[in-house]
């Protein structure tokens, strides 16, 4: 008799079940099921061998020591040059008009001033995003007991500092939104299930599927206990 999801009664696929973690995630409704609660529900294996080591994606810098693995990559793409040019143009244009209007004998109407302020704010935002593209890198520092993700040096949301026990399973998913300011393709997210079964986004809008798979493999190997490999569902496409 096939094992079925308790939430929607859909039968589990082979890729839905993690024998090492004794967890199952339904492909139909994303509900997480603890297999330890049903003794004998899923057969066990004495061991599980890791897959072949994946090549390092282009642009990734990997530092490996006995205690940790550090992966970093730059944000820079040519798109940021055009974004910076647009932002600078808006900054200069809106600033000149504001100075001219405020110094005139008859200042412009409040609505016109508000519009110029919105233009200036948009230009500043684009300029800041362009600067992050030129200067920022993402660093993933993974140890046997901790995962740390940092974006910098310019502040940007998405920093993470997670203990090993808070993560149960990793998986990648295609994101319908493309990477920031990329003019082609879709992005990829690296997600994780926490101890309560809630899904967390660790890294978002990565440019290539190979990047997600490589990060999955490194994190799973480092965060595993001893030589035990933590399996994860294959990278899936968002519906």
Structural account:
By secondary structure, this protein is α+β, with helices and mostly antiparallel strands. The strands form 3 sheets. The protein has a 5-stranded antiparallel β-sheet with strand order 4-5-6-7-8. The protein has a 4-stranded mixed β-sheet with strand order 11-10-9-12, with helices on one face. The protein has a 3-stranded antiparallel β-sheet with strand order 1-2-3, with no helix packed on it. It contains 3 helices and 12 strands. It starts with 16 loop residues before the first strand and ends with a strand. The protein has helices at 79-103, 110-135, 209-223, and strands spanning 17-18, 23-25, 32-34, 61-64, 68-74, 137-143, 146-152, 160-163, 167-175, 187-194, 199-206, 236-237. The chain is elongated. Helices cover 28% and strands 27% of the residues. Strand 7 and strand 8 form a beta hairpin. Residues 39-48 and 225-239 have low confidence and may be disordered. The longest helix has 26 residues, at 110-135. Helix 1 packs antiparallel against helix 2. The chain has 3 domains: 1-45, no CATH class; 59-75 and 138-237, PH-domain like (Roll), CATH 2.30.29; 79-134.
């Amino acid at each position: 008799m096939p094992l079925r999801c308790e939430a929607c009664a859909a039968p589990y696929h082979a890729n839905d079940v993690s024998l090492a973690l004794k967890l199952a995630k339904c492909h139909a409704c994303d509900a997480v099921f603890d297999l330890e609660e049903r003794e004998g529900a899923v057969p066990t294996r004495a061991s599980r061998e890791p897959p072949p080591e994946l090549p390092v994606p282009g642009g990734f810098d990997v530092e490996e020591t006995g205690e940790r693995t550090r992966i970093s990559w730059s944000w820079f793409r040519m798109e940021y040059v055009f974004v910076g040019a647009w932002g600078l143009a808006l900054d200069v244009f809106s600033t000149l008009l504001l100075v001219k209007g405020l110094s005139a004998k008859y200042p412009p109407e409040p609505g016109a001033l508000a519009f110029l302020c919105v233009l200036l704010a948009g230009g500043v935002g684009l300029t800041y995003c362009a600067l992050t593209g030129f200067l920022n890198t993402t660093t993933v520092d993974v140890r046997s007991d901790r995962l740390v993700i940092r974006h910098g040096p310019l502040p940007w949301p998405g920093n993470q500092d997670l203990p090993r026990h808070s993560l149960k399973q990793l998986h990648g998913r295609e994101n319908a939104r493309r990477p920031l300011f990329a003019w082609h393709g879709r992005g990829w997210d690296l997600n994780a299930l926490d101890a309560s079964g809630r899904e967390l986004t660790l890294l978002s809008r990565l440019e290539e599927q190979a990047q997600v798979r490589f990060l999955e493999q490194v994190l799973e190997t480092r965060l595993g206990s001893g030589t035990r490999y933590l399996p994860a569902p294959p990278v899936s496409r968002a519906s």
